Amino acid sequence: MHIHKYEKWWLTFGAAMLIAFLVIVGVSAFHGGTHPNNSKWTINYEKVDEIAPFDNPGVHKVEGKDWDYEVVLVASAFSYNPMEIEIPVGSKVRFIATTKDVIHGFEVAGTNINFMLEPGYVSEKITTVDKVGEYVIVCNEYCGTGHAMMYSTLKVVDADDNSNSH
Ligand SMILES: [Cu+2]
Questions:
Q1: Where in this chain does the record put each Cytochrome oxidase subunit II copper A binding domain (predicted)?
Q2: Considering its fold, how many domains does the chain have in total?
Q3: CA of 44 to the centre of ligand 1 (A)
């Protein structure tokens, strides 16, 4: 069978692209840890405030678990509760988050902490905060007129500083 020269180039190019994309997806999934939410944990989004742990949003130090802190977070148009998250550097953190109304995003700018909050579902992410700094948390899913004002802050602080109030 005769295949035209240009046709061959395009076939090669197409096949190479496919392989390149599969490699990128594979590396980011298995090496970079990028996964979609498993969406196994569901919740009645109209009663989020009454359902544990969302009846008590905030940063909680925990004992006897694989992580040091749990950050329970509730998003709603157009804010996050808690407004500010402060965690000592080097801590392993489990984020547990959901939304009370529409889809929101939770992106800690400059890190790989980035997930969607969907009504009726709980999103989780376990990660270690290993760099001191003040990170802006932004909503990256357009959620309405106040979307651009929807942000919060993650403060990763020196462990020694932790008990001081300044
Ligand atoms: Cu938004």
A1: 55-166
A2: 2
A3: 21
Domain shared by 77 and 155, yes or no: yes
Examine the domain organization and report whether 60 and 31 are in the same domain: no
What pTM, to 2 d.p., does this model score?
Answer: 0.77
Together in a domain, 82 and 28: no
Ligand 1 centroid to 122 CA: how many Å? 17
Residues with Cβ within 8 Å of 49's Cβ and at least 6 positions away in sequence, in order, are 55, 74, 100
Neighbours of ion ligand 1 (CB under 5 A): 139, 143, 147, 150
Domain residue limits at 135: 45-165
Question: Considering the domain boundaries, does residue 40 fall inside one?
Answer: no
74 and 11 fall within a common domain:
no
119, exposed or middle or buried, with CB in 10 Å at 0-12, 13-18, 19+?
Answer: middle
Quickly list DSSP for 80-149: EESSEEEEETT-EEEEEEEESSS-EEEEETTSS-EEEE-TTB-EEEEEE--S-EEEEEE--S--STTGGG
* pLDDT tens profile 70-125: 999 999 999 999 999 999 999 999 999 999 999 999 999 988 899 899 999 999 99
Q: How far is the CA of 146 from the centre of ligand 1 (A)?
A: 7
CATH number reported for the structural domain that contains residue 107 in this entry: 2.60.40.420
